[in-house]
Amino acid sequence: MLDALQNVLVTPAEMTAIDKAAADSGIDSFTLMRSAGMAVSAAALRLFPEALRFVVLCGPGNNGGDGYVAASALADGGADVAVFALGKPEALKGDAARAQRACPLSVQPLIAYEPQVGDVVIDALFGAGLARDLPEEAYETIERVSEGRIPVIAVDLPSGVDGRTGEVRGTSFTAAHTVTFMARKPGHLLMPGRVRCGALEVFDIGIPARLVSERAGDLRINTPAAWGSHASALDPATHKYRRGHLGVLSGGSLSTGAARLSAAAGLAAGAGLVTLVSPAEALAVNASHLTAVMLREIRDTEDLATWLKDKRVNAFVLGPGFGVGKKARDFALMLCDRALVLDADGMTSFEKARAELFERAANSGGRLVMTPHEGEFARLFPEIAADAALSKIEKAQAAARLSHAVIVYKGPDTVVAAPSGRAVVNANAPPSLATAGSGDVLAGIVGAHLAQGMPAFEAAAAAVWRHGEAGTRAGRGMTAETLIENIPPLP
Ligand SMILES: NC(=O)C1=CN([C@@H]2O[C@H](COP(=O)(O)OP(=O)(O)OC[C@H]3O[C@@H](n4cnc5c(N)ncnc54)[C@H](OP(=O)(O)O)[C@@H]3O)[C@@H](O)[C@H]2O)[C@H](O)CC1
Ligand SMILES: [K+]
Q1: Is residue 491 part of a domain?
Q2: Which protein residue's CA is at the shortest distance from atom 46 of ligand 1?
Q3: Residue 345 belongs to a domain with what CATH number?
Q4: What separation in Å is there between the alpha carbon of 125 and the centre of ligand 2?
Q5: Is there a binding annotation on residue 412?
Q6: What letter does residue 168 receive in the DSSP assignment?
Q7: Number of domains the chain contains
Q8: 490 in a structural domain
Q9: Is the Cβ atom of 156 under 6 angstroms away from ligand 1?
Q10: Domain region containing 424
Q11: Which atom of ligand 1 is nearest to the CA of 64?
Q12: Which one of the ligands is nearest to 205 CA?
């Protein structure tokens, strides 16, 4: 894959514009289709040398065209190949029609395909052009292929996966391997599309990287390239006050653990100082569990105002175990002027008072990061959550615009979005990261980055990445505590 495009995510609509720009610049589109099909045949031979037969399923568009090229190349190489098509080959147009005409193999109707032991399916039914739920014949074929446990190589996307949203349109193949072209699409990273793709190969079919990056929007895969230039503020040699002072707000005596996890994570992630802010009744329990994290009693908004006179306390985490209600709202609105991670109960407290929070975020001049999982997102942004036409990325972007906050929309495919529309999709989180206390740890890492002066978007994206790396390092038996121990240094 091209290094320059490694982190770029291209929507199917942008890819169409890129194809057009390539054609306008004089690049022959049939040459691109030939490269695409050849890459698929090469992957098939490399990955399944023991296949008894390659079965190429071709659709009515250019994805099918790639399939005819692959079938021709496999047959040229001496493999046993069978081609089945959805729709009449005579109805194909343009490059796909040309690829079919050049293919020496006979074409049978899709419904005639009976899976056999030793088959490997090349799925070229639909790619970027999937526009609605799959037709009935495709359903039946996918069912037969799954029942027969036939391995599938998908061309561009497993048919049925929507390249823009990662949603499954009715049903889809589950591929062992997917070969896509030039750059990844959102559907390769967003769930459930991601797990339907199997291993993902990005093949350079020869469109100049410049044409791709010029037409790609503000969407990236979450790697250090997205925020690394802001990570120098986190040099561990810096004086502790210059690495910021993070305040984490604890709940009452029966729910203190979550805030302590955030505080410990904040310290481990590089905040210079961390203070756990506790109500009187939880002081004893908090004190008995803290060493490097400091403790301060704050009962009410008056106490908080007094503490806030110290301008060195520059970032806060409010939410984990805090309790839902007026106190959370009052505290959060006071902290919006600095840098605030609003998590868990902190967000839920604003379910009926969203406008006030969003207005404060718009006008405070501070940095606000909110970290909802799916349920919390639906509570804070019910209209956006209910809009079935939007992808998870588009939902996070809409929520960020509405709330004037950076949104970390959590899940196996966490999306971080800024009010400007800039967004990253995370891809390094192991499934084991969905463990109790994991979200509290993430909030603490975001808080540490904010305390160290990172802009909100970069602070959040870098935290999600470090959290994912920590999960991988901590391994399958992880707990929130081992997760904290495994937070890696910034790259
Ligand atoms: N630069 C590149 O990346 C290249 C990609 N190539 C390949 O081209 C496809 C995209 O091709 P496209 O023709 O745009 O789209 P598809 O082949 O995926 O499908 C479009 C046709 O399918 C019909 N359609 C869509 N959804 C359904 C459905 N649910 N049921 C039935 N038919 C459907 C659609 O018909 P409409 O009625 O909606 O117009 C089209 O006929 C990309 O994925 C790559 O594989 C190039 O080969 C090389 C360059
Ligand atoms: K496909």
Answers
A1: no
A2: 33
A3: 3.40.1190.20
A4: 5
A5: yes
A6: B
A7: 2
A8: no
A9: yes
A10: 224-485
A11: 17
A12: 1
